């Protein structure tokens, strides 16, 4: 039987959990059940939320709010048809309850019908006295629809309602960034900081906008203010370090990265950036020390392995570079950047068969960058496969139809094959695309640049371009 409880009314969760451990049944107000259920839902304890809903409806079978929480759980668990049937019944009981429209919107959102979800949320707005949560949901629906302008406006309303709603603040800035309106973001954040001068989150975001615009002194000031507002804000120290790197102040950058390590468990990203700073300072042993720590901390961080490989590659220690890129490939053989670097190293070692294989792997895994096509063609040429080199360049041309580099290189290889007709077409196309890059052709194919055949083509195209 239900018992009265001497528990304080502000302790319904403790009281409920105590009840679950015994055979007693305590009575709760419907509002208490709502608080208990919200607590469990917010903490991801769905099973306990469902228990609270079941007991709550046994004690308050007419409570629309408890039934709506049951619908919320059904939607979360993707029992959408059952949830819709419940909502149909509830709407006959209370047709002006905005939560009914919100849950219907959630169902449509789950079905990827975001336009219908928006329409229902706008209906809920007309019924609600407190529209804060609805604007947040609208913002998310607009994000799903890639309508970043309307999403930004919705999240701005949330921030205007509660300036401590940092989740919405982040979303506002995300929308500005996606719209590439960095000036708009800077203006918005400065306006926000006029009202909240000690908000470390806003200072941090402002610094990132300045960094994007390469306004490094302003970015540095913003991150300093973020640290003044919260001297344990790790993100501000890390971003400040990146700014100091850009300004060439590598020792100061190291101090900021080390601060993040001292405040929290070390991260591979911090080790990596410290290593790069030491390399810039020509502290080679320290650079290696931190690069090795980077891959020890996170063996799957591709930037770490590439940093060690590049370290040796820049010093022309190609065998060591090859050793480390092969270790990286053993960890992640599906990484196109690893294969591209492997190709560069094998080319430097004049192992052109291996380089050809590595370039092919990189392309097959989705690396379609222009230098990859050009490098692969050069390797094919070194392997005496001129026809293969031309074929590679024609593939690359599909991705870069306006690339003069591809055209000049194609013309040179076609001349090597004595394919004069296609060589003429390729060279004319290259000159029309970028006459100024004729030097690329001259440097790679000096044996042809001074021939009458090439001079005549160059002269004719030059005259046509002047007209």
TrEMBL record:
Q: Where are the TPR repeats?
A: 234-267, 302-335
Q: Name one Pfam family in it.
A: TPR_16
Which keywords belong to this entry? TPR repeat
SUPFAM superfamilies of this UniProt entry? TPR-like
* PANTHER family named in the record: CELL DIVISION CYCLE 16,23,27, CELL DIVISION CYCLE PROTEIN 27 HOMOLOG
Q: Know the name of this protein? A: Tetratricopeptide repeat-containing protein
Which species is the source of this protein?
Pricia antarctica
């Amino acid at each position: 039987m239900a018992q009265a409880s001497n528990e304080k009314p502000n302790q319904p969760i403790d009281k409920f959990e105590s009840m679950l451990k015994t055979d007693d049944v305590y009575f709760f107000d419907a509002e208490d059940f709502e608080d208990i259920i919200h607590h469990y839902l917010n903490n991801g304890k769905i099973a306990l939320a469902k228990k609270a809903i079941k007991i709550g409806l046994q004690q308050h079978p007419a409570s629309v709010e408890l039934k709506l929480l049951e619908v919320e759980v059904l939607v979360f668990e993707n029992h959408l048809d059952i949830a819709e049937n419940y909502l149909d019944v509830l709407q006959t009981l209370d047709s002006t309850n905005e939560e009914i429209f919100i849950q219907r919107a959630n169902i449509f959102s789950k079905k990827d019908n975001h336009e219908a979800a928006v329409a229902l949320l706008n209906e809920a707005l007309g019924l609600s006295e407190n529209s804060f949560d609805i604007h947040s949901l609208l913002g998310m629906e607009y994000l799903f629809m890639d309508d970043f302008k309307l999403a930004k406006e919705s999240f701005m309303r949330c921030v205007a309602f509660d300036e401590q709603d940092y989740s919405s603040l982040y979303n506002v800035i995300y929308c500005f960034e996606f719209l590439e309106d960095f000036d708009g973001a800077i203006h918005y954040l400065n306006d926000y900081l006029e009202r909240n001068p000690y908000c470390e989150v806003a200072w941090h975001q402002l610094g990132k906008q300045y960094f994007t615009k390469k306004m490094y002194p302003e970015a540095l000031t913003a991150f300093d203010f973020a640290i003044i507002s919260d001297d344990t804000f790790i993100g501000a120290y890390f971003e400040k370090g990146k700014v100091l790197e850009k300004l060439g102040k590598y020792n100061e950058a190291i101090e900021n990265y080390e601060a993040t390590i001292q405040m929290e468990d070390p991260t591979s990203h911090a080790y990596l950036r410290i290593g790069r700073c030491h390399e810039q300072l020509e502290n080679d042993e320290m650079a290696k020390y931190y690069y090795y720590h980077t891959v020890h901390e996170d063996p799957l961080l591709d930037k770490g392995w590439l940093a060690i490989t590049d370290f040796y590659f820049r010093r022309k220690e190609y065998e060591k570079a090859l050793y480390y890129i092969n270790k990286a490939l053993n960890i992640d053989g599906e990484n196109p950047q690893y294969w591209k670097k492997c190709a560069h190293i094998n080319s430097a070692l004049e192992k052109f068969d291996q380089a050809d294989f590595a370039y092919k792997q990189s392309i097959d895994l989705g690396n379609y960058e222009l230098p990859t096509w050009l490098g692969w063609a050069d390797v094919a040429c070194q392997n005496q496969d001129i026809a293969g080199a031309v074929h590679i360049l024609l593939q690359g041309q599909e991705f870069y139809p306006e690339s003069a580099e591809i055209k000049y290189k194609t013309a040179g290889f076609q001349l090597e094959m004595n394919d004069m007709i296609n060589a003429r077409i390729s060279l004319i196309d290259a000159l029309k695309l970028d006459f100024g890059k004729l030097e690329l052709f001259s440097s790679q194919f000096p044996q042809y640049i001074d021939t009458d055949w090439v001079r005549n083509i160059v002269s004719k195209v030059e005259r046509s371009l002047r007209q």
